[in-house]
C-alpha cells in the first residue's frame, strides 16, 4: 500500500494485478474441481448401467437349456431396447461372443461399450463358463 495524492492509503496497480491473478487461479481451480466431480458422477452412472446390462444378460443365458445355449449365434450384437429404457440406455452397444472350450463347455463373453461425455470409448466385459450342468462362475474385467 502506498499513500496517494490526498494522503490516503491505496493499493498499487501491481498489487491489484497480483491479487487478480491469484483470484483467477482460485476460481479456475474451483471450476476444474466441479468438472472433475461431474465426470466422476457420470462415470459411476455408466458403470451402474453397464453392471445392470451385464447382469441381465448373464441371467437371461442362465435360463436357457444347454441345447438352446449351443444353438445361439457365436458372435452377436444384442438389442437391449426391450429390456431397458431407451432414454438412458440407447448409448450402449452390447455384444455376446460364445467360444467352444470343449464338447460340454462354452465360454461366454458379454461386452458393453459406450463413450464418455469427453468422447473416450469404454468397454466392460463379463466372462462366464457354461457347462451342460449349468453356469460355473463369472468374472468381471475392464478392457
Cα distance, first to last residue?
59 Å
Q: How many beta strands in the DSSP annotation?
A: 7
Structural class: alpha+beta
Q: Spell the H/E element sequence.
A: EEHHEHEEEE
Largest sheet: 5 strands, antiparallel
Average pLDDT number: 84
Provide the helix percentage. 40-55%
Oligomer: single chain
The strand line-up of the biggest sheet is 3-4-5-6-7
Question: What general form does the structure show?
Answer: rod-shaped
What value does the Rg take, in angstroms?
28 Å
| Stretches with pLDDT under 50, minimum 5 residues | none
**Count of helical regions:** 3
Residue share in β-strands: 25-35%
In summary, what is this structure?
With 143 residues, the chain is of the alpha+beta class.
Key features of this structure:
alpha+beta, 7 strands, rod-shaped
What does this protein structure show overall?
The protein is an alpha+beta fold. The chain has 3 helices and 7 strands. It has a 5-stranded antiparallel sheet, covered by helices on one side. It has a two-stranded antiparallel ribbon with strand order 1-2. Strand 6 (121-131) and strand 7 form a beta hairpin. The protein starts with a strand and ends with a strand. The mean pLDDT is 84.
How do the helices and strands line up, and which of them pair or pack?
Elements: E1 2-3, E2 9-10, H1 13-62, H2 66-70, E3 75-78, H3 86-89, E4 93-102, E5 105-115, E6 121-131, E7 134-142
Antiparallel strand pairs: 1-2, 3-4, 4-5, 5-6, 6-7
Amino acid at each position: 500500500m502506498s499513500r496517494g495524492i490526498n494522503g490516503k492509503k491505496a493499493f498499487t496497480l501491481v498489487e491489484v494485478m497480483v491479487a487478480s491473478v491469484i483470484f483467477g487461479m482460485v476460481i479456475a481451480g474451483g471450476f476444474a474441481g466441479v468438472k472433475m466431480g461431474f465426470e466422476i458422477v457420470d462415470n459411476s452412472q455408466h458403470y451402474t448401467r453397464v453392471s445392470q446390462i451385464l447382469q441381465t444378460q448373464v441371467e437371461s443365458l442362465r435360463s436357457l437349456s444347454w441345447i438352446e445355449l449351443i444353438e445361439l449365434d457365436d458372435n452377436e450384437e444384442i438389442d437391449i431396447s426391450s429390456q431397458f429404457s431407451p432414454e438412458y440406455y440407447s448409448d450402449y452397444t452390447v455384444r455376446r461372443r460364445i467360444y467352444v472350450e470343449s464338447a460340454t463347455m462354452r465360454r461366454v463373453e458379454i461386452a458393453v461399450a459406450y463413450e464418455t461425455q469427453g468422447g473416450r470409448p469404454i468397454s466392460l466385459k463379463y466372462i462366464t463358463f457354461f457347462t451342460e450342468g449349468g453356469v460355473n462362475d463369472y468374472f468381471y474385467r475392464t478392457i
